[in-house]
Amino acid sequence: MGAAHRSQSLIRNWQDFRIMVYKFGPNEQCLRRCRAIVPVILRAADQVTSQGVRVLYEHQNVVRPLMGWWQFTNRTAQALMSLYDQGYTVEAAPLMRNLLGHSYAMNWLADSGEPAVVALTDYWNEHRRKLAQNVNETWNLPEPASTPSAEPIPFANPESEQIHKRLVGELKNFDTMVKAYGTADVYPVYRHQSAYSHTTGATADAFLVMDGDTLKFTTEPKGGAADTTAGRLWIPVALLQAAAAISRLLVGDPMKPTIDRAMGDLGLPASLLNLRRTRPLM
Fold first, then answer.
1. How far is it, in rounded angstroms, from Cα 70 to Cα 255?
2. What is the rounded distance in angstroms from the CA atom of residue 91 to the CA atom of residue 202?
3. Furthest-apart CA pair in the chain: how many Å?
4. Is residue 133 left, alpha or beta, with left meaning phi > 0 and alpha meaning psi from -120 to 50?
5. Among the listed residues 264, 261, 267, 270, the one whose alpha carbon sits nearest the alpha carbon of residue 22
6. What phi and psi, each to the nearest 5 degrees, are found at residue 207?
7. φ, ψ (nearest 5 deg) of residue 149
8. pLDDT digit of tens for each residue in the chain (282 aa)?
9. What is the C-alpha separation between 79 and 76, in angstroms, rounded?
10. Which residue spans within the chain are E strands per DSSP?
């Protein structure tokens, strides 16, 4: 299956993914709306953060990583729009993968609460320990790199430990995370972008052309236009999911007016932002 055909199939899948309202899809009218709405969402987010956010006490620990992820998703969306405007297509796929994964994980974190914060911290510490181990094993440093504590987490009961293990598993594996929310159809989109994020045949094939028995190359990737169209469609959806995840934990739900207006302009249903776990933690 060629890159262009795969991208067109993904676009059709995205249309079917609970957003087949109005004419959301690869049509010029929708693309114009997406281009216009993305800056509106980003400006509203900048205004919220520049004015200073207020957080209820019970949400403080959850909002802390959420705020960092929110800035990351917003800047990633800006970078993607810039790359697309400059004519880059499949080269932007790693950023598209990051945007999709982080916007979804923001909903996962907001929905799962404090246990998810503990899981995120544990997973991040594990990554840092492995990195320090790699550095110490391969680099001749005057002083070894320090590593986070490896002390086990004290769980209140076996059920809490089981919930922790499940949350860490969902964070490590995007496929597991989306299945927990009954949205397994999101994963093929992520996997498609992953093919361009790693050293696979996709990144070579995009620039190779068979002309009869002759192998040629192109400086413009094949199927790039379809990938750009799909990306431009998904950017506002990801931004709205990310904004909705954090806004409801802030005093006054400050992004709600912008979210509601954008959802109406694009013809997107509220269910797209109200992800609910279908596979219980226990």
1. 12
2. 11
3. 67
4. alpha
5. 267
6. -115, 10
7. -60, 140
8. 444 454 444 444 444 444 344 577 788 888 999 999 999 999 999 999 998 889 988 999 999 999 999 999 999 999 999 999 999 999 999 999 999 999 999 999 999 999 999 999 999 999 999 999 999 999 999 999 988 888 889 999 999 999 999 999 999 999 999 999 999 999 999 999 999 999 999 999 999 998 899 999 999 898 778 888 888 999 999 999 999 999 999 999 999 999 999 999 998 888 888 788 988 887
9. 5
10. 208-211, 214-217
Q: How far is CA 6 from CA 24, 198, 271, in A?
A: 19, 17, 26
Write out the two tokens for 174.
Answer: 């995007």
Polymer length in residues for the chain: 282
For residues 242 and 103, the answer to whether their CB atoms sit within 8 Å is: yes
Question: How many Cβ atoms from other residues are within 10 Å of residue 144's Cβ?
Answer: 12
pTM here is: 0.88
Query: In this structure, is the dihedral angle defined by the CA atoms of residues 55, 254, 273 and 8, taken in order, positive or negative?
Result: negative
Question: What would the two tokens of residue 173 be?
Answer: 């594996």
Pick from 10, 176, 215: nearest CA to 93: 10
Structure tokens at 275: 């992800």
Helix-helix angle 60-85:28-50, to 10 degrees: 140
> For 151, which DSSP code?
P
